[in-house]
Amino acid sequence: MKIRNVKVPEGINVSKHRPLADLFVLTAGAIGVFLALGLLAFLIGAYGGRYLPMSWENALAASVFEGEESVDAAAGSDEEIAAAARDRGIEAALQALADRMTANMDLPDDLHITVHYLDEPDINAFATLGGHVFVLRGLIERVPHENALAMVMAHEIAHAANRDVAANMGGALLLQLVLATVTGMSPETADGLIWGPNALLLRQFSREAESRADRAALAAVAAEYGHIAGADAFFRIMLDETGETLPEQGPEFLSTHPLTAGRIEALGALAEERGWSRDGPVQPLPELLKELDPAD
Amino acid sequence: MEILLEFWQFLLVIFLLILGYFTGSIAERRHYKSIIRREDRLGNLVVIVAKTLPPMNPAPATTLVRGSVVISVDYFKRFLARLRMIFGGRIHTYESLLDRARREAILRMQEQARELGASMIFNMRFETSSISKGRKDAVGTVEVLAYGTAVIPAG
């Protein structure tokens, strides 16, 4: 019997393959699955958030805003006390305007709008959970008349009424959960990614919400004043401002709010469609608010 | 800041992937070259898995010979394998790891047998074990032990 070793043949136990192509396909697949999962989580969360009972949202908001007075009446020097009193007055004037707008809007039964005034220079207003709407000093300084301010406030109130805030938070929360679970990153980091400057998903989502809020707000303005003159004044101001500094921030897809020029056009088209008058007298700002305007 | 930190970790992964890909390929190519060269040299020292020897006269001396080796895959292959474990399928990148380990173990066993003046090894067996098993994020490392009975002709 002749026994011998055979030469080990190559390519049977080790198959030929291209590892880099493999890496590419598998990575792309994994990222695709991951993105799909994230999107699904966000949509489920947003849907859930939107249909969460209003009372739950109110309870959550109450736990956040409990004991917090946005205009602090803390004792201090006479000047501070005077400033606090003035801020309370501004807040009351804003609340009165908000109440007039909500009377013309379709709000969930147990949603109550609470307006807070913030003595900050940024041109901004925003709605948060439980119908708490914040208006910043910088915005009041820029609006030329009450109609423009009413439009902006009605827009924020519409966000609360449409449950956009709850939807956004619900979606972000679930997305954060998925990010943290799948990648093992800390919830804080996930939070940063979601709300950070590159959060395209959130932007696209909120762009639709913005248009919806715009339409509801314009309807409220038309109902309150009988015309929509001046409603887009604030957008026009923003257009001028951004036209100078940020030349329209690139493609619309990347923008949270529909591009300002587009918004003005959309509002005009809506007014046309509903037959709202574009002309009419604009109301001056309430005295306390007018005083904020440095130009006066 | 934390996002930067996260990116730093991401960059580290990319760096390790590139490093692993190049060093891993070079190491593997060299190893195969050495394996094939030594297999040619030790080809006349027969290794079989039969349990019994044909009768020989005079009776030869027999002794245990063994060769063991520990081999690790590089980061790149490990990464690819982990991805593959998500979708399923053959993990090509681990095939060469095991192939190299088994052939190297046989070679070491043969080298020991040759030093003892053996003409053949019978009843050859393998033991394969993962020595990184259960350790999180450990790069796949296997130990392969080849052992058998060396036949040393009498006189």
Mind explaining what this structure looks like?
The complex is a heterodimer of chains A (296) and B (155). Chain A is 60% helix and 5% strand. Chain A has 296 residues and is mainly alpha-helical. Mean pLDDT of chain A is 80; it is low at 244-249. Chain A is built from eleven helices and three strands. The longest helix of chain A is centred in the N-terminal third of the chain and has 32 residues, at 19-50. In chain A, strands 1-3-2 form a three-stranded mixed β-sheet. Chain A has one domain (22-61, 85-290). In chain A, helix 6 (164-183) packs across helix 7 (187-195), helix 8 crosses helix 10 and helix 9 runs antiparallel to helix 10. Chain B is α+β, with helices and mostly antiparallel strands and 155 residues long. Chain B has a single domain, classed as Hypothetical protein apc22750. Chain B (Translation Initiation Factor IF3). Chain B is built from three helices and four strands, in the order αββααββ. In chain B, strands 1-3-4-2 form a four-stranded mixed β-sheet. In chain B, helix 1 crosses helix 2 and helix 1 crosses helix 3 (92-115). The longest helix of chain B is centred in the first third of the chain and has 40 residues, at 2-41. The radius of gyration of chain B is 21 Å and the shape is elongated. Chain B starts with a helix and ends with a strand. The mean pLDDT of chain B is 88. At the A-B interface, helix 1 and helix 7 of A face helix 1, strand 1, helix 2 and helix 3 of B.
Report the portion of residues of chain B in β strands: 15-25%
Question: What fraction, in percent, of the residue positions of chain B are helical?
Answer: 40-55%
Shape assignment of chain B: elongated
Per the CATH scheme, the topology name of chain B is Translation Initiation Factor IF3
Overall geometric form of chain A: elongated
**Quaternary structure type:** heterodimer
CATH top level class name of chain B: Alpha Beta
Biggest sheet record of chain B: 4 strands, mixed
Uncertain segments of chain B are: none
Share of helical residues of chain A:
55-70%
Which residue ranges of chain A are poorly predicted, with pLDDT under 50 across at least 5 consecutive positions? 244-249
- State the major sheet of chain A: 3 strands, mixed
Number of strands of chain A: 3
Give me the CATH superfamily of chain B. Answer: Hypothetical protein apc22750. Chain B
* Mean pLDDT over the full residue set of chain A: 80
Average pLDDT of chain B works out at 88
Q: How do the strands line up in the largest sheet of chain B?
A: 1-3-4-2
What letter string, H or E per element, gives the SSE order of chain B? Answer: HEEHHEE
Using only C-alpha atoms, the radius of gyration of chain A works out to: 26 Å
